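ping. complex inputs:
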Amino acid sequence: MDFAHSLRLIAPEETLSVASLVLLLVAAWSGDKAARLISILAVAVLVTCMALVVPALSNGLAGPDVTAFGGQYRADAFASFAKLLIYGSSAAALIIAPAFFDRLGQMRAEYPVLILLAALGMGMMASAGDLLTLYIGLELNSLASYVLAAFLRTDGRSAESGLKYFVLGALASGILLFGVSLIYGFTGTTSFPGISAALAGGVSAGAVFGIVFVLAGLAFKIAAVPFHMWTPDVYEGAPTPVTTFFATASKASALALLMRVALEAFGSQADTWRQIVIFAALASIVVGALGAIGQTNIKRLMAYSSINNVGFVLIGLAIATPQGAAAMLTYLVIYIAMSLGGFVAILMLKDEEGRPVEAIVNLSGLSRTRPWLALALAMVMFSLAGIPPLFGFWGKFVVFQAAVQAGFIPLAAIGIAASVIGAFYYLKVVKIMYFDEPAGVVTGQSDVAHRALLIAMALVMSPLGYLLTKWLDGLATTAANTLFLAV
Amino acid sequence: MGGFPILSLMLLVPLLGAIACLKLEAPAARTVALGATLIDFVLGMVLWANFDIGGAQWQFVERYEIFSAFSYALGIDGIALVLIILSVFLMPICIGASWISVNKRVGEYMAAFLLMETLMIGVFAAQDIYLFYIMFEAGLIPMYLIIGVWGGDNRIYASYKFFLYTLLGSVVMLIAMLWMVNEAGTTDIPTLMAYDFAPGVQTWLWLAFFCSFAVKMPMYPVHTWLPDAHVQAPTAGSIILAGVLLKMGGYGFIRFSLPMFPEASAQFAPLIFALSMLAVVITSLIALVQHDMKKLIAYSSVAHMAIVTLGLFAFNVQGLEGSMLIMLSHGLCSGALFLCVGVIYDRLHTREIARYGGLAINMPRYALFFLLFTMGSIGLPGTSGFVGEFLCLGGVYQVSTWVALVGTTGIILGAAYMLYLYRRVVFGEAKNADAAAMPDLTLREYLMMIPLGLAVLWMGVYPESFIAPMRQDIAALDARLARAKPSYDPKLVMGAGKPATAHESAGHGEAHAEGAH
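pong. complex structure:
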């Protein structure tokens, strides 16, 4: 592979890097006045990058033709699938931000630039073909994310959230690096195909430690139990648009990375790590569901809900089949649509002076004061609970279908039974909005961008979403298969 | 009727009505809801008129491969047809029952009911197992809202209990469905009905389906959500709950459990019999001591449904036909009884039996209708209840005389608690001045009562109209079950008709006796 070819393959990364640097300069010269303009340009850049990655997915590209820099980077169908999600959710995080920050006078020009840098890192995570690319992408993303979490300088909760995220994130990175060094020590390589080949003959105790540390580090990033403790605090404290970004783009990139590592690098030794993933999956479902029951803040509730949902995604990983991987991707798409819808609805919960309303009790009787907003939020809740005919059901359906096809019937049965616990707290929110007397707190006007985005997500979540299943299934299968071909 | 997608149209009309109702003010929403349900009723009649009795097993079939992993496939046989007719018949009555009594958030209320109608028809018409599941589960959402928003004082508890109970039952069924589809390689219900699963696996699959249908039915130990839900639901909610939602459990048994897992069904028949016998006796006794009218009727529903399950697992034609007829009759009678309760609840705002009395004096016409439906519920010959119960218990008698004996006590106890209820509410002296001042039925109430009354009598006098469409399907099911049919305990010996053969049959009797020794 010549150098020029490699440079062509990383076109989205080049675009993002150059654009973010240029926009940084614009920000430096014109200051916060240009924040809105920079946001618009950043959205345009992200949309361009989405267009750049589409061909690889629609043609189902994989193999050496799309491998750059001697195997360190892949521009295959899987990476494209993940990048579409990442760039799309990053664009959404930019679109919803101005209405939130303007009220506080905090719509600063760094916000779009940081989002772009984080998206760049996330894209590299999804494209990683080597443990070092993985780490660079992860850190680029993480550093930008720490700053984003603490973006509201005047708000104590935001600063606390940023600090917590930084400390725990650094710890996770350390654990991950330690695992990487062990893997390198026991296999003699950092490239995924190399590791896979080295482990194929059998796995040594040192390599098992390496695998465990790498998985633990990644479990931090996806907020799986038992490494989930930071999630509620960070989700609650971070500004809501940033929380949206964490719940959608960060989640997608971390899960894509986890799939790459687990299925590509360690795929030949699935039996070694399966128990760990099964434990993390079931524990996440149960802890996420139980933890959410006592919550009084809707953002914390969504944080626990994200822990709960990661558990379902991990069921797809535990079975380690192409169907399982495709199911994970499908789930991820639907989960992102639901979270985006949910957080946009939360952003629209404002009191008379435009201050955000986060306490769940203040949503009482929302169905009478703001019927459409309540309907959308109820759809999010039922969809997250996986009740048909809403589209959230489909995500759970494909995951459990893959599990049953692979013969993991007890896992599927326990997982689905535990999902009933989760239904309880989603029902609680619906109950408060629909059954209780109106509290009359949520009266603020909503932004047009929020409204448009919410309507779009509500349409996806509605039964109309099932019309997408054929298309979604095809893409997810194409993307997932490349993970299993690459070896 | 060839290619006209009448089933899709029946799903679409209430759905569009529901969306329209969300935006409308109270009077317009009521009119739209009534219009949509009446259109669906007319379509249901067209469906019935065009159903070719003795023709193809599955009619009005529609199939579009628009989803991944499952298809939009509709089609009905006779069993589904009669249940759809029941649903579309009860819906306008439900709307009528809430015409005045529901006056807050009318648009949303009507939307929930219309959505419910779409989903009910969808459950009965689905020919794809996943489509069935989606429709089956989706019904939880509108019912949760109906109970929770427009219910009584303890509505929150009842709505949670209803939702979580039924959800837990159904998710286990989903895993079984996933396994079956993976094994059989199709989601088509008719194909799955003819697929032979290994008997060892059937046991597990049967149990998983049982989890869901037993809760929905509801069967004895898991019935506790029903009285709560009924008591708290508004009148129309109770009608639809008793009239149609409970039938989904029975429909599930007859559509899935029996034809798909015949061996497991035979294996578990003793369990069903035991639970049903317990239910018949215990819930009837519980009904006897209720002070709340709705609770009494709710417990009577559990007892009736227990007779349905007895008949279903009798593995013979009488039992199956009887069960279907009880389901239809119960849909009419208990729906009508809840309506009767609703009529006086609207006037006095209490369901306490002791607050009424002597209504025959000031509401004689109401008393007449109430009597008719009470008799229908008891199973008096000439009303709809009799035919089904007689067939059902006749079918059970062939299997086990003891079970039939216990099942029959349900009828006696049923007469006891229903007549006792009737005596306390309608006869005797007018103890309470406010109850004695209640006016008799209004025109709106007549319009609801008369069709129900006529249907109860029609089914009692000429049940053939309802049996005819199902006969072929029941026979097919019976043939499917023949290989697993358990041996019968009465060991009937045909009596000898002529003296010439008397000697021979006596010889047989001896041989039999010897064999027994």
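The two ends of chain A are 18 Å apart (CA to CA).
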